[in-house]
Amino acid sequence: MARQSNEAFFWVLFSAGGVVAALLIPVQLFLFAIAFPLGWLPAPSYEHLMALVRLPLVRIYLFVLCCLSLFHWAHRFRYTLYDGLQVKHLNEIIFTLCYGGAVIGTMVAAYLLWTIA
Amino acid sequence: MGAVKPETIRVEYAEFHPRWYRPPVSVYWWLKQRQYLTFILRELSSVFVALFVVMTLFQLWALKKGPEAYAQFQQWLQSPLVIALSIIGLFFVVFHSITWFNLTPSAMPVRLGGKRLPAFLVAAPSYVAWAVVSAIVAWLVLR
Asked: CA A38, CA A32: separation in Å to the nearest integer?
């Protein structure tokens, strides 16, 4: 388990990620993963999406969304395993996998958004 | 038992840890009550939040590779299994949004003139923000 002093830091990331995910993910998931694939709405063209992603503000937006959502997941999932499965002896592995995953995902997002345009 | 000599009786004393007594809880404790199940489902919504990020990263990767890769990515999103997962995912992320916004009044009680504002008035701005932000995102994408 993390030392007590780290807890507040991770909690702030969790909580910020919770807000960002709550506000932004439903609309994006609905559009890109349901409405466009099922043909309910006309899917945006490749060029339109590239034009959007070229805007620095959109890239910052996507980076913040990916990073904070991942840290939100890491914190919440860690405690779900902790409470739900009672796997106290695996705490360190779970901690490493959750936050390690969030860090790797953040780095991938940074790389993709940096090199995409 | 009177015949047994005291020195032959082996007694193992447990150490006394009064604060350590915890009744054993089943691993499936969260199936026992509806509130517990709701709690675990709320916590599990984070898995779909992470899966959404993974999808977004794949989308960016496909965009970066070019129009053909992006068309392939779109095709992948159309496969029935992915659609099913997306619908389940949408249910969970909306569940996350609602539970998150409804927590605001408990996390941040607002007082006005010494009285606590009713919970729905504290949560309402979050829902308004949700609607506005969703509309802006949809407008930018669909424009």
From this structure: 10
